[in-house]
Design brief:
The protein is α/β, with parallel strands linked by helices and 401 residues long. The protein folds into two domains: 209 residues, Tubulin/FtsZ, GTPase domain (Rossmann fold, 3-Layer(aba) Sandwich), CATH 3.40.50; 106 residues, 60s Ribosomal Protein L30, Chain: A, CATH 3.30.1330.190. The protein is built from 13 helices and ten strands. Strands 3-2-1-4-5-6-7-10-8-9 form a ten-stranded mixed β-sheet, sandwiched between helices. β5, α6 and β6 form a beta-alpha-beta unit. α1 packs across α8.
């Protein structure tokens, strides 16, 4: 009998869940607390096989707040991150079968398991969560919204987000190649439309924008930038393009410069600027102002990681020149200023261009761009809708703030 005079049998106590970690997780490129190596501590969760590959590419760079989920263990086996950072959801169901509804249902059923995985894998000390999605598959396309919701839950419970404040949850989504078939492109169209809606247009505030940034990577574009790339190297190259450019901006944002500094506040502004796109381009004719401006235009037209964006709609940008010492000894300051002005002229009136000029170890001059406040790429979205036989409504022309 207990104190209430009720005969209660011995009840087996549930095992403690040792999975939720309160420890601080450090990225491997961190040198010390005083010299963290990057401006922000990013965390990545991969959804499905494509999303897991994206997350894995950040692990390879040294980011250690990385985890992956999938509906089949087979697809997770090839992802090179610790086993404890992987989660198979809906085990026994045989995967999502390219059906986003199956992926969404399974993820919803495993909501708490996904929450525990994220808490265990990220710890308490992080600045922003990125949900990585390969648009096209069943697990990635279907689970994305659920995992974004879980990520917001984690952020709120750790007091990193609040209603009316700025979101710290972003997404990286890869578009399929056009030859991957109708079903894959239809799935991609559905998840991308959902992600674009969540970006909204309210300067990164949760009241109107629950997702920022949204980085879209176009595998068809990567295929055109690197023609004849072997099958064994394609996915690694596609994912390294985005992860390495992301890491470059995150690293540069805490580096001093003798010329012009792109700082942490500049990068944070771009992270809150909704839909963003990265680009990179070598500048061969840097002795001429026209050579600089041509490289800027070529960067925006040909070397961004997704086609169809109207760069004239951009309202925020980061532009970083990295040059070898011999170039910096010769190039006139006016040439670089002309480059910044050329970028500004391609954008909306009154837009902001965050600038940076740095000395690098590689020969020559390279310009890196990060364009923000973009509208969705209507041309490319129309293409995948057409391939996927998706009926779309004509939207009214978007008004800029």
């Amino acid at each position: 009998m207990d104190d209430f005079m009720v005969d209660v049998p011995d009840i087996p106590m549930p095992e403690e869940n040792a999975g939720v970690s309160t420890e601080i997780i450090e990225d491997e490129f961190y040198e010390s607390d005083s010299n963290p190596g990057t401006a922000f501590k990013f965390a990545f969760v991969g959804c499905g096989q494509g999303g897991s590959r994206i997350a894995e590419s950040f692990w390879k760079l040294g980011y250690r707040r990385v985890c992956c989920i999938n509906t089949t263990n087979q697809d997770l086996k090839g992802i090179d991150i610790p086993e404890e950072n992987k989660l198979v959801i809906g085990e026994g169901e045989g995967g999502a079968g390219k059906n986003p509804e199956n992926g969404r249902r399974i993820a919803s059923d495993c909501y708490d398991d996904i929450y525990d995985l994220i808490r265990r894998s990220f710890g308490k000390d992080f600045d922003r969560i990125f949900v990585c999605v390969g648009a096209g598959g069943g697990t990635g396309s279907g689970s994305a919204d659920v995992v974004i919701e879980v990520s917001h839950d984690v952020a709120r419970n750790l007091k990193k987000e609040s209603d009316g404040g700025q979101t710290i949850v972003g997404a990286i989504c890869s578009m399929p190649k056009v030859n991957e078939g109708g079903k894959v492109n239809a799935n991609a169209h559905g998840v991308l439309e959902s992600l674009f809606r969540q970006v909204g247009s309210d300067s990164g505030k949760l009241a109107g924008r629950s997702l920022s940034p949204l980085v879209v990577v176009d595998n068809d574009r990567i295929n055109k930038i690197y023609p004849n790339l072997p099958v064994s190297k394609f996915w690694d190259m596609a994912n390294r393009n985005i992860s390495s450019l992301f890491h470059l901006f995150n690293s540069i944002a805490i580096k001093d410069s003798d010329f012009s500094t792109f700082d942490r506040a500049d990068f944070k502004d771009l992270l809150q600027s909704g839909v963003v796109s990265f680009g990179a381009c070598p500048v061969r004719n840097w002795r001429e102002q026209s050579g600089i401006s041509h490289s800027i235009r070529d960067n925006l037209k040909n070397n961004v990681l997704v086609g169809g964006f109207d760069m004239k709609q951009a309202r925020a940008a980061g532009c970083i020149f990295i040059a070898s010492p011999d170039v910096l000894d010769e190039i006139p300051q006016d040439n670089l200023e002309h480059g910044f002005e050329s970028l500004s002229r391609t954008m909306q009136p009154g837009s902001t261009v965050h600038r940076g000029i740095y000395k690098g170890s590689k020969e020559g001059l390279v310009v890196y761009t990060m364009m923000g406040e973009l509208t969705k790429p209507a041309e490319r979205m129309g293409e995948i809708a057409n391939i996927g036989n998706v009926a779309i409504k004509k939207e009214p022309e978007q008004k800029r703030r």
